[in-house]
Amino acid sequence: MMASAVLLHVIAVVIWVGGMFFAYMALRPVAATQLEPPARLTLWVGVFGRFFPWVWAAIAVVLASGFWMIFAWYKGMATTPLFVHAMLGLGILMMLIFFHVFFAPYGRLKRAVAAQDWPVGGKALGQIRMLVGINTLIGMLTIAIGAGGRYLVP
Q: Exposure of 154 by Cβ count < 10 A (0-12 exposed, 13-18 middle, 19+ buried)?
């Protein structure tokens, strides 16, 4: 059962953090240089509309599998290693950032694109870009802690 929990946990993290990395490092620069604001902002509404349901599912899987491992494998928070606490804290921070992105600037972006208000849409997309960049870095740090934490912290 532990192997299944770890596998699901890692797959969910790869989907979320890998998706952010791709969007930020590959799709964003190309879209910014090749598309005018109406097409670019419409593209991002479509991309987020397809990616964000995967993020919601990844969050559910990460939380369920992570807490299952904490309580089934480590027998509770008190006996859980420091690196797992660090992953949990950073993961919750990432989730809070995502919730903000989803409910605030993404909502503004969708409304702006529907109204063809490109300056407002551009501002919302800029906020999303900054927050996704931060979340990508936090996600990569969390992955590093998960992969190497047991070897770095006793």
A: exposed
Global pTM exceeds 0.85: yes
Structural contact between residues 6 and 62, judged by C-beta atoms closer than 8 angstroms:
no
- The string of pLDDT tens digits covering residues 83-121 is 999 999 999 999 999 999 999 999 999 999 999 999 999
Question: In Å, how far are 55, 58, 138, 143 from 83, measured between CA atoms?
Answer: 23, 21, 14, 11
Which one of 1.10.530, 1.10.1740, 1.10.12, 1.20.120 gives the CATH number of domain 2-152? 1.20.120
Residue 122 CA to residue 67 CA, distance in Å, equals 38
The pLDDT of residue 124 is: 98
By the 10 Å C-beta count (0-12 exposed, 13-18 middle, 19+ buried), 143 is classed as middle
